[in-house]
Hints:
The structure is a homodimer. By secondary structure, the first copy, chain A, is an alpha/beta fold. The longest helix of chain A is centred in the middle third of the chain and has 22 residues. Chain A starts with 5 loop residues before the first strand and ends with a helix. At the A-B interface, strand 1, helix 8 and helix 9 of A face strand 1, helix 8 and helix 9 of B.
Amino acid sequence: MAIQNFVAYNPVRLHFGEGVVQTLGETIKQYGKHVLLLYGKGSVKKYGYYDEVTGILKNAGLQITEFGGIQPNPLVDDVRRAIALGKEKKVDVILALGGGSVIDSAKIVSVGLVHDIDPWQFMLWQAFPEQSVPLVTVLTLAATGTEMNAAAVLQNTETGKKVGFVHPELFPKDSFLDPAYTVTVPKDYTAYGIADLIAHALEAFFGKGEPSVIDRITVDIIKDAMEQAPLLLNDLKNTAWRANIMLDATLALNGLTNYGRSSGDWGVHALGHELSLLYGMPHGATLSIVYPAWLKLQAGRIPKRIQKLGDLLFGLTDIETVIQKLEVFFKSIDCPVRLADAGIDESKKEEILHQMNKNQDSGMVYLLNDADRKQIVEYM
Amino acid sequence: MAIQNFVAYNPVRLHFGEGVVQTLGETIKQYGKHVLLLYGKGSVKKYGYYDEVTGILKNAGLQITEFGGIQPNPLVDDVRRAIALGKEKKVDVILALGGGSVIDSAKIVSVGLVHDIDPWQFMLWQAFPEQSVPLVTVLTLAATGTEMNAAAVLQNTETGKKVGFVHPELFPKDSFLDPAYTVTVPKDYTAYGIADLIAHALEAFFGKGEPSVIDRITVDIIKDAMEQAPLLLNDLKNTAWRANIMLDATLALNGLTNYGRSSGDWGVHALGHELSLLYGMPHGATLSIVYPAWLKLQAGRIPKRIQKLGDLLFGLTDIETVIQKLEVFFKSIDCPVRLADAGIDESKKEEILHQMNKNQDSGMVYLLNDADRKQIVEYM
């Protein structure tokens, strides 16, 4: 497949390192005087990030309108309310303080504020934004990569359906990545974030296109995360390890791993979402279960590709060993690799398969049919 | 040193792959109707790129003003003339068709067109642009990375001095990287381009900051170039190998390798420039001579850093062997590793050292004094 034609574009300005949040005021002032501050359900207040950020905004003479309480699975209803509030208050700029759910919500708010369109229409790809209110982010969880890309995922309050939208207007203008803002993430969610970023790199690796330098770089991100993970998980307050994982997570989904590819695969993500939907499992914990099973299914179909992964990642090409080593890694960071590890009984497999088949979860490159999904669920 | 604080920002839209130039017209039309077309000394006409590009512009209904004849070491005088022409003709957008010298010239033209300031003042960092005319590039030589960065190097016609300027206004809006536009680059200049891109990655690796994932990525760009080089040099018309090297060259100097670093070193480049100045040596050919000598000087001073390079690049940490393997590679692609290989006699070493000491060429991280430069020249 070699290099596939591609367009690369990413205008996000990344401010990375300890203390960068101190310069937030100057950055935001470029975009206006009145800030709509979005945040989640309390941890930013509990750990002092809210106080520090609002203090910086006030010192910079900025006016603040707040919208807190965004859920971990962000709801379009909250986005609608935030848009109404922002329109009423005539805000100039949005600041998202939080993880993926807050930033994803803020992205849709940023386009919703300047269009008279229900935001769910964007999510259904039925309407496309022509402009946006400038969005600035302060990241508090390394995982999704949303801080440096143009994608957002929201859930519909009534249907429970989770859908994603990608559009250049969703790029944040500036993202502040201060590792000190992630030191309070608990051990389990730190590990799930690591599983998530590794899965993002794998989705790219199994995408369409095999650009040689980007294959290497994609695996470098995985390799680095696997090396940093035990250091960080044994020393959660260490900002140096936090910084390394934070950078890995951003690189895993900021477009770089798709240079030379025309798409990622994303089949494992689709399957994993069903586990979250059915049992409320954290996203990263679904991926550490589904990826090994997906690889077992693909072992006989794309052996060379999996051997390439094994060679770059572990210096070995025996496929069974490659998958086993991935599983050993996930277990070592307390991420589940079987349903049983997540406390989900064998007897649920039928229900899971039913849900996956109902949505015809497939991926974009190595397509899955009903029989494939059955095999994957059996492996889980 | 771990990760150093950094700001990453690169808004260039990269259009990569065979045939992408076909969409050039639509892209340029976004920016206006009247194009200032800059190109070099004839090879784009000889090989048909000029005809194809001007045909595409005309089909798109665009008006063209031409400025050809830009030199391989681009001169500020040409830039001044191009600015005068562009102002007179009231152009809306600039198209640079060529390699580093044409694109670098076009960057300064793009800011010169909208300021009443002699362009050399920008080059001396005595004036800073506030805006620019949109710049689009079509790259015909993989080497300098200028297609996706905000730097330009120009030479002063009177003094012969070569200086660089870096400013966000110098980013091209769009860069078209079609590997088919590089297949006519002769074998020697293809190899010098590879030496140049490897040296760019090394300058970053020996910069300030040791971000673990970026160290891996930086070295993997080198590793990929070393692997692709013999494939390409034995099959110069092969667009797949051309594409791989083209992508390596862009990644080596588009900012990525400086994530987590506060600067590169650039000492080797400074020393290499003196050889170009004294003997007209091609830039890449100076770097393959100076880098091994610089590494020999640094072997006793920064052994761990060089061992890290060796470990990531060759899986070995004996410093002498690491340097030797780099030299073997450069020789294998017919790049000189000693002055003698470039036909420069031992007796010139005094003159070379004098020139280097006169300019106090040093680099930014592992600073060099007169005695260091003497040692380096002895190794060359």
